[in-house]
Amino acid sequence: MAAGLIGITQGGAWIDDVDVVKDPARARARAGLLMGEANLYDNMTLQGYLSFFGEAYGLTPATARRRAGDLAAEVGLTDRLTRKIESFSKGMKQRVGLARALVNDPPALFLDEPTSGLDVEAAIEFRERIREFRHERRSIVLCTHVLAEAEELADDVVVIQRGKIVAHGSPAQLKRSSQGDRFRIRLAKPLKKYEAAFKGLSVEDVRFDNGTIEFRTKDAAGTNPEIVRRLVAAGADVIAVDEVDRTLQEAYVDIVRSARDAG
Questions:
Q1: CATH of segment(s) 177-245
Q2: What residues contact residue 143 under an 8 Å CB cut-off, 6+ apart?
Q3: Exposure string over 39-74, b if 16+ CB within 10 A, otherwise e
Q4: Mean pLDDT by 10 residues, the chain (263 residues)
Q5: Single pTM value for the model
Q6: CA distance readout (Å), 23 to 15, 19, 20, 151, 165
Q7: How far, CA to CA in Å, does 248 sit from each of 136, 150, 154, 245?
Q8: Less Cβ crowding at N or C end of the chain, within 10 Å?
């Protein structure tokens, strides 16, 4: 909707201060879009393909050709300029799609599942390209179900469930649980009676496995030193106390489940 491909049924959207509803043509001219499938003109050369879209955006033929060369260099395909796109790998075609989305130097770039169907190496290469562009003066909207991708690339994450925003924040903010942070204590050897170290303290979800204790607390500063003191008093040799960093995927599962339970 924000990219102007389908109409907005409720609310509004603006791209570079241009109203998508009132002036969709101008809004589209300020946006670049790459879908999961690039849908390219395979019988054209890369030079001809990018030049064609450059002229469609109003560039002169000479300027469009220069722009095509610059974009090919930006996505690492300079050596393929004179070759037909049909000879490219899927990963290369996605980079061509990215170059096409940047032809008009848009202030907003929409990427919809851009690494879908790519092999591991091609996906890593493509994410590297996105990382290079995210430092430019351009907003990038990435739609993805690959949470590791969002965690790696995004400054700001929005979780949508059934058409409604259920969480919004940086990856670090979303990974923080409302139930507290999780910690791991490593002991030199297992301790038979470890439960007493947690009695009466504000801890939850305590797990013990072969010399490793994990627990969750909202008051690490007040709780963790007391736990360590109790463990040492019980004869334990404490090797380390570490905070366990959740992945964005784990946080996403908790967020969606909470939203579903809330109705």
A1: 3.30.70.100
A2: 110, 111, 112, 113
A3: ebeeeebbbbbbbebbbeeebeeeebbebbbebbeb
A4: 68 88 89 86 96 95 97 94 95 94 93 89 89 81 92 93 90 80 91 85 88 90 94 93 88 87 75
A5: 0.77
A6: 10, 6, 5, 34, 26
A7: 25, 8, 11, 9
A8: C
